[in-house]
Design brief:
Layout (H helix, E strand, L loop, with lengths): L4 H8 L5 E8 L3 E8 L2 E8 L11 H4 L7 H9 L2 H24 L7 E5 L2 E5 L19 H20 L2 E2 L8 E4 L2 E4 L6 E2 L6 H16 L11 H10 L22 H24 L1 E2 L1
Antiparallel strand pairs: 1-2, 1-10, 2-3, 3-5, 4-5, 6-9, 7-8
């Protein structure tokens, strides 16, 4: 196929030989299957901010590091340079998270290069060597649901031990590879220790997994892995191989009304986002 303009510079640099086909068009990026020598990889082209349905909410960008104080001031003022710096930081966040998580043994696509707003990375495949499907595109048996749910909880624990919370984890950004689930789409990943919204987002990520796999294995709907995981993390007791029970007793006390309202708003926003994804995610 004719290479998209955004991939032309990577071809000229010799990072890509040919563009095979478009793999997917999502809320924040377009993904292409490409050939690099003898290997087949994928190239993720980030959409411009005004063309994305996912916005850089302050909850996600809180305490993200920038190169220098000039960039920080420009981003705070919203100048043109500041917007460009913010966009660059948003894109590079996924690259940084992928390298960080891959080093921690988390099942994410292997990153190869990041050039001109294009992320070149591993193509995750199924047992037939084809591009792996998203989790929301498959039907599971109860046994498969329990197995994949357990595997993904292990990955979330590893991420948290590495200081990262996905922030938007659901069946829409998990691929089912030949050897199990692989987590994708990390530009909104946040620093677990440096972001005040980390707990809320971690609990939401785990709740999304519970809700999805609970469709196939209803007993999972009664588990509480998120609060258990965060409690161990806060107390410095969470390890990559920690054994979780799914049971957690919430301590009784004063109710934080603001937090409750935010949780309700998050749930509504998540449901709206799910419906939007079903309408806009178009496998090619």
């Amino acid at each position: 196929m004719k290479p998209p303009k955004r991939l032309q510079s990577l071809i000229e640099e010799g990072l890509i030989d040919t563009v095979v086909r478009q793999l997917m068009s999502g809320k924040e990026a377009m993904v292409y299957v490409v050939r690099c020598g003898d290997e087949t990889r994928c190239a993720k082209i980030y959409k411009e901010a005004e063309n994305r349905s996912f916005r850089q909410a302050v909850d996600y960008t809180e305490n993200r590091k920038v190169k220098n104080s000039r960039q920080a001031r420009a981003m705070a003022k919203g100048t043109r340079y500041g917007r460009e710096a913010q966009e660059a930081a948003w894109q590079s966040a996924e690259v940084d998270a992928l390298y960080r998580l891959a080093a921690a043994g988390v099942r994410v696509p292997k990153p190869y290069n990041f050039c001109d707003g294009v992320l070149l990375m591993e193509l995750v495949t199924d047992e037939f060597g084809d591009a792996a499907p998203r989790l929301n595109d498959v039907v599971l048996t109860p046994a498969q649901a329990r197995a994949h749910h357990g595997a993904l909880l292990t990955e979330v624990v590893r991420m948290l031990c590495a200081g990262v919370v996905h922030g938007d984890l659901s069946e829409f950004n998990i691929l089912l590879a030949a050897d199990g689930p692989v987590i994708i789409d990390l530009p909104q990943a946040i620093d677990a220790a440096g972001n005040n919204h980390a707990k809320r987002m971690l609990l939401r990520d785990v709740a999304n997994l519970r809700a999805y796999f609970g469709r196939f294995a209803p007993e999972l709907l009664h588990t509480h892995f998120g609060p258990e995981m965060w409690d161990l993390y806060q107390r410095g007791m969470l390890q990559p191989d920690s054994v979780l029970t799914g049971r957690f007793e919430h301590q009784k006390g004063l109710v934080d009304v603001g937090s409750v309202i935010r949780e309700i708003d998050d749930a509504r926003a998540e449901e709206a986002a799910r419906r939007l994804r079903m309408q806009t995610l178009r496998p090619q």
